[in-house]
Amino acid sequence: HLIRHDAPYLFQEYVKESHGRDVRVVLVGGRVIGSMLRCSTDGRMQSNCSLGGVGMMCPLSEQGKQLAVQVSNILGMDVCGIDLLQLNDGSFVVCEANANVGFIAFDQACGMDVAGIVADYALSLLPSRLTRKMSLLSVVSSASETSSEPEVCPAPSNVLPEAVCNMSVGSTSSESDPELADTTPQPTSRQVGPSPVLPNLPDPAYNFNTLLANEIKLLTE
């Protein structure tokens, strides 16, 4: 293939014995929480589940776990997916590291809730006083939602609540399991102000790890 674009390229050594299969290792807080064997179903080199590959839970050797943890520590990624290629002698080499790791296929194959594990890890990084405050707010919120007589604050018919006017539109994506949102336009009875302005796309360096670090910093300041 000809290189047609003036852009950087990454070339990797071809590992023949691992053609069409790899092991996805997910780490949270520098700890391996599970591993999944991914296999291509059409003879292609890529084994991504989003490209038609299938995944199944598999045990990982101590060497594989140590290699994944080492890569996570070197790159400074608290939450990540490390893809390993297995050689004929059973040892592993690194294929790639994913900061924005997909959860859906991994959850289905391993019977796990990665999002819940990540949330628990994020809460564990907060000061204990702030954690207790958030727990109290959660209890109050739950009590309010189950109340049989919710308080209703009437508003003028021609004015929307400020919270609604300030809502912004965003989007989420996953490295391997994109989810499509319903974009069907809904009928409206009247025009209410200008359409919201979509935010600019984030910088390529923006990933879950930087998001987590920034949110923790804001909550603890």
From TrEMBL:
Q: Where is the composition biased (Polar residues)?
A: 183-192
Keyword ATP-binding attached? yes
Q: InterPro entries from the entry?
A: ATP-grasp (IPR011761), ATP-grasp_RimK-type (IPR013651), Rp_bS6_RimK/Lys_biosynth_LsyX (IPR004666)
Q: What is its EC number?
A: 6.3.2.41
Q: What name does the UniProt record give this protein?
A: N-acetylaspartylglutamate synthase
**Keywords of this protein's UniProt record, alphabetized?**
ATP-binding, Metal-binding, Nucleotide-binding
User: Which Gene Ontology cellular component annotation is one that this UniProt entry carries?
Assistant: cytoplasm
Q: Where is this region: Disordered?
A: 168-200
Q: Where is the signal peptide?
A: none
Pfam families, alphabetically? RimK (PF08443)
Recorded family membership: Belongs to the RimK family.
Write out the catalysed reaction. N-acetyl-L-aspartate + L-glutamate + ATP = N-acetyl-L-aspartyl-L-glutamate + ADP + phosphate + H(+)
> What one GO molecular function would you report for this record?
N-acetyl-L-aspartate-L-glutamate ligase activity
Query: The ATP-grasp domain covers which part of the protein?
Result: 60-123
Q: What class of enzyme is it?
A: ligase
